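Researcher: Structure prediction, please.
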Amino acid sequence: MKKKIVIIILSIVVILLALALVNVFIIKPAIEEKRVALINEGISYAVVTIMQQVSTCEVMPLTFQNQTIEIVAVECLQQQIDIEEGGNKTK
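Model: Predicted structure follows.
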C-alpha cells in the first residue's frame, strides 16, 4: 500500500515537472514572440502614419509625457526655402 502511494506521489511530481518544463520552454516563448510581433506591428503602423502625414508638408506635433516637438519632412523645408528664394529674386 505504501509503495502505491509513493508511486502516485512521484507520478504527480513528474507530471508537474513536465508541465512546468512545457510552460517554460514552449508556452512562454510563444507568448513572448507574439507580444514582440504585436509591438513591432504597432510601431510600424505609427511610423507609417507619421511619415504619411508629414509627407503632405503638414507640421505634426508629437507628444510624449510632458514634451512636445513638431516635425515636418525635410523635403518640405527645402521646398519652402526654394519658394522664398524664388520670391526674393523677383523683387
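Model: The chain has a mean pLDDT of 91.
Researcher: Thanks, that helps.
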